[in-house]
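CO-FOLDING WORKSHEET

Operator: S.A.
Ligand of interest: zinc ion
Run index: 361
Mode: holo prediction, single chain
Checklist:
[x] sequence pasted
[x] SMILES validated
[ ] output reviewed
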Amino acid sequence: MAKDYYAILGVARGASEDEIKKAYRKLAHTHHPDKKGGTEAKFKEINEAYQVLSDKMKRQQYDMYGRVFEGGQGAGAPGGGFGGFQWDAAGGFEGENFSDIFEDFFGFGRQGARASAKSARGEDIQVTLGVDLEDVAFGKEKEIRLKRHVACAQCSGSGAEPKSEIISCETCGGTGQVHTQHRTVFGVIAQTGVCAHCHGRGKTPKHKCAHCHGAGIRQESDAFTVKIPAGIDSREAFRVAGKGEEAPYGGKAGDLYVIVSVASHSEFSRQGSDLYKNSRVSFSQAALGGKQEVSTLWGAITLSIPQGVQSGTVIRVPGKGMPKKSGYGKGDLFVSVFVETPAKLSHRQKELLDELKKEGL
Ligand SMILES: [Zn+2]
Ligand SMILES: [Zn+2]
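OUTPUT RECEIVED:
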């Protein structure tokens, strides 16, 4: 075993993700090279240990083999040094374990960039909706409940107290942008970011709305009905415009994408716009042929059973399948006929069958 990462972070081998994160934060703050008494070597070591122990897969490898294998996504493996997170020009450090921690250090991060994106247009939301075959066949309406950001009712999304004076933002001097320079272990990083105070608008209300603290949006539970597009299939999605996250300060709301998951049906199976079902016919009906009532999604129909039908014969019923996605017409229903051999016979039935047997049937 090369290095004892648990000892480096001062945690037990069975430490939880949370304990590891806490220990890392504390040590990283103490040993950060920008801090008095901080050393780069120690800081790198702490980061190396955290990269492995905060990653489920790497930690498992390390526990089993005492090392983490290089290759693939495994940047930042022991000896590989200080990798594993990437500078992203748009926002800051990528990687969920690091972004919040680096925000702590440097006072910047993705928050600013995110906020500016939000003020332009709200983010899209994706949900999965479980529906029945009937919902899809008839294009029924279904209720969707979700939590999303909606414009603050108190200030209509402006973030200002009613009649508040609008002033130039003091933080950015009205430019909407802030310039920051940070000395880090990677060197000096200069960044232009969106002013977090005014969200890039350069202007800010003198008195912020008390309801949303000036954000203009609030996360709330929302419920509304959507119409299921007739004929949609599982894993397909439809868009509900404007039902994504709403944006503050007059920005456009994002869209909601509903991914459909169609439950399996007790009677019908489906392939595209065609439906399939089984239908049992009696022994004598199969031999003689005749009419049989068969249920479909579109009401019962009378099926003509041809004389002498064999078990497994498929009868096609045009236009009784699912609506086509084009909006024109429906697919077909395929009925598989299964001939039932009687398991129990009455005395009379047995007599008659014996007669038939003598006739060569
Ligand atoms: Zn500002
Ligand atoms: Zn408000």
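REVIEW:
The CA atoms of residues 286 and 310 lie 7 Å apart.
The longest strand covers residues 141-151.
[x] output reviewed
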